[in-house]
Amino acid sequence: MMTFFSSNGKSMIGSRETQSPDRVKSRCYALFSQEVALPNLETLYVTGMDSIEMIWDNQVVVESFPKLKSLSVDGCNKLVTVVPPFLLGQLKSPESLEAKACGSLEVVFELQPLIPLDGHPIALPLREPTISGLPKLKCVWDKEVHRQVQFQRLRSVSVFECNGLTSLFPALIFRDLTQLEELEIRECGIA
Asked: What is any Pfam family matched here (predicted)?
């Protein structure tokens, strides 16, 4: 088993610098850039990295994280999404995901725009997402998930202290939740 743990901005692997029309430079930091491939990585912990805006650069290498089973993100206050659409087809093994205490996180699985490569939905083996302490979280899954990604192995979903949450599941995802045994929602904004 290969595990990667990062707990400060100094261990970042990639960054991208852009220059706006008025010549003001800004940095968009990604933990993993297009040059990084960790084909045997099974566990990834990203903790206390306030300078990253995304975990994966949008040009990540194909098959760069095929064995990733567990992803934990904690205290990354500039992070807006955990799993972007371009990475979903590459994640073949994710079983658990934990996202907590990320002040800017708005969506965990950003699925739009996602076009399955072979015309078939992507089946993620995710079993246990735990989401907590995300004040700006609006939804765990984008609203267009129903025809693109299947979550048939979900067994336990826990969501706590997400006051901005407006939707947990898009309505059409319920047909895939045949193995769901535990659903726990506490102190969330769902009305």
From this structure: LRR_RPS2
